[in-house]
């Protein structure tokens, strides 16, 4: 994977080792103008404290920082899209996956001139955690300053019908119902547990139906209640990976079809996922596509995109390999998925 240099070279201070990918100033800054896109209502973070943390650290490094608070949908995308034009050399999100994906969309639409850094301040913050960014905000912030870091390219998915991008998962069925039923109030009160509680309740409402998958033009009919198109398959807060071989740097979309009904089947499925036993169940099937996926269901299923309700099936997705540039810890290796790959799929 190519590493992309990220900031203009500064004159090196004597006796300071400057990593090739990140020229720095003496104050430890790798970037000089940081645009912070903060969602003040995401997760359980305190926006005033997060702002103080960022501004204090930036002042110490002599770096210009502008913190903007979103007021609703669209702000993060618009600000990220205009950030390079406005002279910023990095966008830092302080929010959850919804905020990150909006910023990713804005950066892609601006031609990816600058990278994205993240402070995981959302309920799940799966994108940041999958890139091994620390959940401790001060540690995550240091990637812009003293901590060893680099920029890598992350695959994303694109939904042409909706003209929207995603980084984690877009899906139809169970995941969409959980998102629909997890209001902001519940997430603020219980954090990630909100999704778990709603998930357990929704498990019992699931009914199998006929699902049609079109994978790079080939049609498959399956029975299930959920079909997910996955880019990032790790749910760090639940310590599970929802499938084998799912890797957000491989240019491949992974499709998972779930069909377990009732307590017994669902417990058996959860146990499998926890033990990473992905093969051999008719209620858990995996497929892959390199270009395009289309999902239809009879009767239709509700859909979601990276944690936002979307509408109903059909769901159509294209992959955008290496779609966006993101800041990660230096030790992060985009060429090696964290688990040994399991090749034989259902
Ligand atoms: N000031 C605001 N008031 C209410 N909603 C907001 C505000 N700013 C942004 N939003 C909405 O917040 C949603 C994104 O939330 P985000 O994903 O950042 O946090 P989260 O849901 O707590 O975390 P995660 O997605 O990681 O579980 C978007 O739907 C966006 O429109």
UniProtKB/TrEMBL annotation:
SMART domains: DAGKc. InterPro entries: ATP-NAD_kinase_N (IPR017438), Diacylglycerol/lipid_kinase (IPR005218), Diacylglycerol_kinase_cat_dom (IPR001206), Lipid_Phosphate_FormReg (IPR050187), NAD/diacylglycerol_kinase_sf (IPR016064), YegS/DAGK_C (IPR045540). The keyword Nucleotide-binding applies. Residues 1-26 are annotated as: Disordered. It holds the Pfam family DAGK_cat. Keywords: ATP-binding, Kinase, Nucleotide-binding, Transferase. GO terms for biological process: phospholipid biosynthetic process. The keyword Zinc-finger does not apply. GO terms for molecular function: ATP binding; kinase activity. It comes from the Bacteria. Gene3D superfamilies: 2.60.200.40, Probable inorganic polyphosphate/atp-NAD kinase, domain 1. Residues 29-163 form the DAGKc domain. NCBIfam families: YegS/Rv2252/BmrU family lipid kinase. This is Diacylglycerol kinase catalytic region. It comes from Truepera radiovictrix (strain DSM 17093 / CIP 108686 / LMG 22925 / RQ-24).
């Amino acid at each position: 994977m190519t590493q992309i240099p990220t900031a203009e070279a500064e004159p090196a201070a004597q006796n300071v080792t400057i990593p090739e990918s990140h020229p720095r100033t003496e104050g430890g800054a790798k970037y000089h103008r940081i645009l912070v896109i903060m969602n003040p209502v995401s997760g359980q973070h305190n926006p005033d404290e997060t702002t103080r943390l960022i501004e204090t650290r930036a002042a110490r490094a002599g770096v210009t920082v502008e913190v903007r608070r979103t007021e609703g949908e669209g702000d993060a995308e618009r600000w990220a899209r205009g950030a390079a034009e406005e002279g910023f050399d990095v966008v830092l999100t302080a929010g959850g996956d919804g905020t990150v994906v909006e910023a990713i969309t804005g950066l892609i639409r601006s031609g990816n001139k600058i990278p994205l850094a993240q402070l995981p301040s959302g309920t799940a913050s799966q994108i940041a955690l999958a890139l091994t960014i620390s959940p401790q905000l001060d540690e995550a912030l240091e990637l812009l300053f003293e901590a060893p870091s680099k920029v890598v390219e992350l695959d994303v998915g694109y939904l042409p019908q909706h003209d929207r991008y995603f980084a984690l998962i877009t899906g139809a069925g169970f995941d969409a119902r959980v998102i629909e039923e997890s209001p902001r109030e519940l997430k603020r009160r219980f954090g990630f547990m909100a999704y778990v509680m709603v998930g357990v309740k929704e498990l019992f409402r699931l009914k199998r139906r006929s699902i049609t998958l079109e994978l790079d033009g080939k049609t498959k009919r399956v029975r299930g209640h959920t079909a997910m198109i996955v880019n990032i398959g790790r749910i760090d807060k639940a310590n599970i990976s929802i499938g084998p071989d799912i890797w957000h740097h491989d240019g491949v979309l992974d499709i998972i079809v779930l069909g377990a009904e009732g307590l017994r089947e669902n417990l058996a499925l959860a146990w499998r996922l926890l033990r990473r036993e992905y093969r051999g169940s008719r209620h858990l099937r995996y497929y892959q596509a390199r270009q395009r996926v289309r999902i239809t269901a009879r009767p239709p299923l509700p859909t979601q995109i990276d944690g936002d309700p979307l509408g109903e099936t059909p769901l159509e997705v294209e992959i955008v390999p290496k779609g966006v540039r993101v800041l990660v810890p230096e030790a992060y290796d985009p060429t090696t998925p964290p688990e040994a790959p399991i090749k034989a799929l259902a």
